[in-house]
Amino acid sequence: MFYWNKTNFDGLKQIAIEYKEDEDLKLFAEYCHYRDTGIRKIAFQKIEEFINYCESCSLEKQQNISLFLLEIIYRNQEIHTLISDPLKKYLVKIMQFRASSQGESLAYQWLGYLCNNIDMYEKGLKLDPANQICRKALLNSDFNELDWQTHHLSESLFIGTLDDALSTLKRACILLLELSDPNDKKLFEEKYLYYKEIISAWIQYKKSNMTVSFCDWCKENELKFKPYQTLYYEK
After folding, report:
1. Gap between the Cα atoms of 107 and 99, Å rounded
2. pLDDT tens-place string over residues 136-155
3. SS3 for 155?
4. In Å, how far are 24, 36, 58, 97, 176 from 119, measured between CA atoms?
């Protein structure tokens, strides 16, 4: 039988096994173990003990542990309970210190990830144009924006301004140029072409007499775009 949270618990179990003998991460491994087994109270005690252990180390070692841990968390995003709120706050504090003291791309990258902050990703990419995590995060942000602007086109409604959409599309095109992974590049290029085509279709539709809906106009012109289901809720 499929259990919706199976991936999360299987992941916690694997992390617990992998790092249980690690001098610096064994308390974090214990957190994962108790979170996997459902003993939340002890799990949160272990994460507090882990943070206390980290804070007892030198600042350099704290940064090294944090960077290593962030790589684990980033590579295992399907394990949604891997990072608790106290741990997140601690990691943010360490990355803020690193950003202010070293001003490096990596620190801003992780602040962007931890805080879901586009400004941090932009700073990270500005400091290091080769930073692929920052580049992909900014591309995802741009395509999410374009998706939001176009998701009511089935009702012949475009959200926001066309100028904003064209500007976002242009920015995404520039970001695409230096994506290094061919699989990522293919995926993002497909998204770029999709939004370029649907926005171009909207521009042509607006120039027409608009006697039919956008959906019907697309059918008449043999254009196919993904269907949207718009839900409205009554208060």
Report:
1. 5
2. 999 999 999 999 999 999 89
3. helix
4. 31, 34, 29, 17, 18
Which residue type sits at 128? D
What pLDDT is attached to residue 228? Answer: 61
User: Which residue stretches of the chain are H helix?
Assistant: 6-19, 26-36, 40-55, 59-75, 85-102, 105-115, 118-127, 132-150, 162-176, 182-207, 214-220
Closest residue by Cα to residue 24 from 61, 76, 74: 61
Tens of pLDDT, residues 92-123: 999 999 999 999 999 999 999 999 999 999 99
Whether 68 contacts 58, CB under 8 Å: no
Q: With H, G, I as helix, E, B as strand and everything else as coil, classify residue 153.
A: helix
Q: Which residues of 42-73 are buried (b: 16+ CB within 10 A; e: fewer)?
A: ebbebbbebbebbeeeeeeebbebbbebbebb
What CA–CA distance (Å, rounded) separates 191 from 173?
Answer: 11
- Token representation of residue 143: 């395509």
Contact 174, 135 (CB under 8 A): no
Which residue type does 217 have? W
pTM, full prediction: 0.89
- Please count the CA atoms within 13 angstroms of the CA of 19 that sit on its side-chain side: 22
